[in-house]
Sequence to fold (316 residues):
Amino acid sequence: MTSDPTAPATAGTTLALIDHLSRLGRRSAEAHGVPSGLRPRQFVALTVLREQGPVAQQTLASALRLDPSNLVGLLNELEGSGLVVRRRDPGDRRRHIVELAPDGARALEAAEREMACVEDGLLRALSGQEREVLHGLLRRALGDQLPTCAEADPPGGC
Amino acid sequence: MTSDPTAPATAGTTLALIDHLSRLGRRSAEAHGVPSGLRPRQFVALTVLREQGPVAQQTLASALRLDPSNLVGLLNELEGSGLVVRRRDPGDRRRHIVELAPDGARALEAAEREMACVEDGLLRALSGQEREVLHGLLRRALGDQLPTCAEADPPGGC
DNA sequence: TATTGTTATACTCTATAACTATA
DNA sequence: TATAGTTATAGAGTATAACAATA
Fold:
């Protein structure tokens, strides 16, 4: 049926699995009660900020595939908690440069420890080596790096 | 830092990747405009119904990790479109047995072809073999089978 | 005029609790 | 009384459009 032999019988179902696993992760994280009170997107946002260093809001939004207008509220909360800092770009005063605050780095580490625990429960069927493989594949699929560049939706022949 | 050598430096970040990939998949699917008009959970629901055959609503809800009350509306839509059939369990007239309708099977196949296309764009960084590995790992992580059994949240030592 | 961030609004998804009909 | 499904409601999450300040 598939015209492409490199995409076998699994085609079309992997995303469903990912979606479901993502759901399980969210629910499990909620059940465990993330201590830092960080929600998924806050968690990812802090991660990107740590990897990337200071970035403009729009860049961050596109990295997170989040609409800029939604990022506003997210950053308001994070800034209110002292986890990130916003400052104007001197070069272009329209821009806000967002940066991870020391408290944010600490909160992120705490959340990571907690998430490692949740993850451990969720992936308990997999060995440590398999988890590394999984992690590597996901990372490669996402562009060999954290969600950084605004890779446009594939123009591909679909 | 990690006490468990089997869970290396990747610990705590895999779920974030999964979450992000899930988001990308959703957005990409929306962008492509799923032809059958099937939303993610409808898609997964039909998949489970095909794999499992007729099941009680509650069983389906727990398989999907979806609250039974939310499943009602989902099934209403699917039944309204003629994709699934609900009938009373003769043995216990409180139960509704849900079953995939012929139209549902067709819609599912169409959606799968479409999703295979979306997936192809999303996982284009991976070879066919790698995608199989990824699929296998995800499937094993989810219990070596489709979301079927109501595996309770891990009691694990967290 | 174009762009960055913001506000306002609406729509979807989901969880919770109260209700019904069967058991 | 307990259970399966349903309804109603509230709260996130997210997309869209309109707006302010700056370029």
Observations:
- Confidence is low (pLDDT under 50) at residues 1-7, 149-157 of chain B.
- Helices of chain B lie at 14-32, 40-52, 57-64, 68-80, 102-122, 128-141.
- Residues 39, 41, 66-67, 69-70, 92-95 of chain B lie near DNA strand C (CB under 10 Å from a C1').
